[in-house]
Amino acid sequence: MRKMFNLCLFFLLAITFACKKNSAPPPPPTPPTAPSFSLNSLKVNGTYNGFTYYNVNFKPNILLTFTTSLNAGSLSNSIQLIGSSGVVIPINTSLQNNDSAVLIQPVNNINPITLYTLNVSTALQSKAGGNLQSAIAIKLTTSIDSTDKFPQISDTALLTLIQQQTFKYFWDFGHPVSGMARERNTSGDVVTTGGTGFGIMSILVGINRGFISRTDGLNRINTIVNFLTNNCTRYHGAFSHWINGTTGATVPFSTQDNGADLVETSFLMQGLLCARQYFNGTTSAEVTLRNNINTLWNGVEWTWFTQNNQQVLYWHWSPNYNWAINMPIKGWDEALITYVLAASSATYPINQSVYSNGWASNGGMKNGNTYYGNVLPLGPTLGGPLFFAHYSFLGINPNGLSDAYANYLTQNTAHAKINYAYCVANPGGYNGYSSACWGLTASDDNISGYSAHSPTNDLGVISPTAAIASLPYTPTESMNAIRFFYYKLGDKIWGQYGFTDAFNLTNIWFATSYLAIDQGPEIVMIENYRSGLLWNLFTSCPEVQQGMRNLGFTAPYL
To answer: What InterPro entries does the record tag this protein with (predicted)?
Structure first.
């Protein structure tokens, strides 16, 4: 029995020994992990402003302070300055403050008006071997290069230059078949009715300023009028918003907007009547032009657009959808010219009640509030987009013009001054807004593609046409903006057809587009400021004078 016990004990010990021999040795003790660390403070050129900085100089000092001393060897692999195109910008780095702070500076000057990002990754290490707890990204937008991009010239010469360069949009870029104005510089065969009206007025400026001859201008406008007469569809005398410049076919603006656009037609007629008054000679070409313009002008059935004798005009009519859009033309906006022309028609005139009840809503378009120290007689809060003060007033002279609702020079001046003051105050905090960089109106943008920018729809987008076309209302403020646009931003926004459509200095975006309805007001309103040419032509029309009197307007020229 004892022998058996000893044998069992032997086997048990053998098995225990074998198990111990085959088992893995215990792991060595884990060394303690170095603690992570974090950013303690940040300053760009000595100032803290979160992680986004504007108007940064071209060789900024960026000081990052951390909660521990840094490993100098980890700096080069963890800190990068990246340009907007993704290019890595060479930088110098140096440790300070017992190695807990790093000073970063570009090796060379960086570019103006450019977004850079300083990235600090979690590969940044402390001397103890710990890693940065969270990556850091700092946005740096550099300032405008304040040097002049073009030689200084007199203000008079600058205004002429802007008119001459912008005129090329309507002259050099006019449609080769119809002569009409393309909607924009990428529109191909699509021409615009209202923009063509602005273009006709611009051609008159071109003749008056000596950019082209009277004969050449006359021939181009004859081409346009003949095309409108012989090739284009009229809907109760009105034209569509868009037209194919080769065939004359209507190009739908939208599915149901494939017929008459009364407001666009009004802008066209405004220009045509100015041309009729300008070409007052006895040659057969000028007589023929006047007769053909009168045929188009007298053919517009303004009363039809009251939609069965309602006391308001309607914007659209479609041969397929009739009044489906059903949009009444009510003030205050850009369409005062529509009511003035409708009242001036010798063939289909509206009466004053349509103006009072429809356009003016029996006084409902009045405002009367004060914004930035300016009383605004009419319109929406803070005035709306500035084209309200431009499109109708390319021809209508606001000087001394009043009716039951407003003095129109007061209205437009207040509107422009409010727009200016809003941009100077810059409640949205957008980069670049200033007393020299202002103007909110409808234009292309990089946010929504196209928008009617205004103080109540501010996307950070400045449209040069807004300040330029306001020159008659805000001569000092507009001239300051014109100088800034040309001399300081000219390398970004001055091009083949004058100033491009818009820019955004917060997102660093510059349009490459030109639009007829933005280029035209620049030429025309500069000329009205300088000579009153288009105001004098339009208000010299006897039927316009009578129509405005019929609506209750008073002015020295009526």
So the answer is: Glycoamylase-like_cons_dom (IPR019282), SbsA_Ig (IPR032812)
Spell out, as residue ranges, where the chain has pLDDT lower than 70: 1-32
Domain end call among 81, 115, 142: 142
**467 and 424 share a domain?**
yes
Handedness of CA 285, 289, 295, 296 (dihedral sign): positive
Could you give the CA distance from residue 338 to residue 262 in angstroms, rounded to a whole number? 7
Using alpha carbons, select from 110, 121, 36 the residue that is nearest to residue 80.
Answer: 121
4 in a structural domain: no
Quickly count: other Cβ atoms within 10 Å of residue 178's Cβ: 24
Report the distance separating Cα 326 and Cα 490, nearest Å: 43
User: Distance between CA atoms of 14 and 370, rounded to whole angstroms?
Assistant: 103
Same domain, 290 and 341: yes
H/E element holding 81?
Answer: strand 79-82
Q: How many domains does the chain have?
A: 2
Q: How far is CA 9 from CA 6, 14, 19, 21, 283, in A?
A: 5, 9, 15, 18, 136
Residue 149 lies in a domain: no
- Tens of pLDDT, residues 338-384: 999 999 999 999 999 999 999 999 999 999 999 999 999 999 999 99
The two three-digit tokens of residue 239, written as one number: 């034209």
278 and 389 fall within a common domain: yes
Domain end, chosen from 90, 117, 142, is at 142
What pTM was estimated for this model as a whole? 0.92
Q: DSSP per residue over 313-363, as a string?
A: -BSEEBTTTBTSS--B--SSSSTHHHHHHHHH-SSS---HHHIIIIISGGG
Do both 219 and 115 map to the same domain?
A: no
- 177-234: pLDDT as tens digits: 999 999 999 999 999 999 999 999 999 999 999 999 999 999 999 999 999 999 999 9
Residues 6+ apart with CB under 8 A from 75: 93, 95, 102, 124
* Residue 83, domain CATH: 2.60.40.1220
Q: d(Cα 81, Cα 102) in Å, to the nearest integer?
A: 14
Owning domain of residue 113: 39-142
User: The domain spanning residue 199 has which CATH number?
Assistant: 1.50.10.140
CA distance 75 to 98: 15
Contact 169, 514 (CB under 8 A): yes
What number of CA atoms fall less than 13 Å from residue 60's CA on the CB side?
28
Alpha-carbon distance of 318 to 325, in angstroms, equals 9
131 forms bridges with which residues in the sheet? 125
Residue 309, domain member (yes or no): yes
> Do 180 and 130 share a structural domain?
no
CA 526 from centroid of its chain's CA atoms: 19
Residue 411 belongs to a domain:
yes
Phi, psi (degrees; rounded to nearest 5) at 283 = -65, 155
State the burial class of residue 56 (Cβ atoms within 10 Å of its Cβ: 0-12, 13-18, 19+): buried
Are 422 and 372 in contact, with CB atoms under 8 Å apart? yes
| Strand ranges inside 129-230, DSSP E | 136-142, 190-192
* Co-location of 333 and 430 in the same domain: yes
Phi/psi of residue 35, each to 5°?
Answer: -70, 145
Do residues 230 and 246 lie in contact, with contact meaning Cβ atoms separated by under 8 Å? no
- Do residues 125 and 188 share a domain? no
Nearest CA among 228, 209, 204, 201 for reference residue 520? 201
Q: What residue has token string 């521990």? A: 68
Residues 103 and 194 in one domain: no
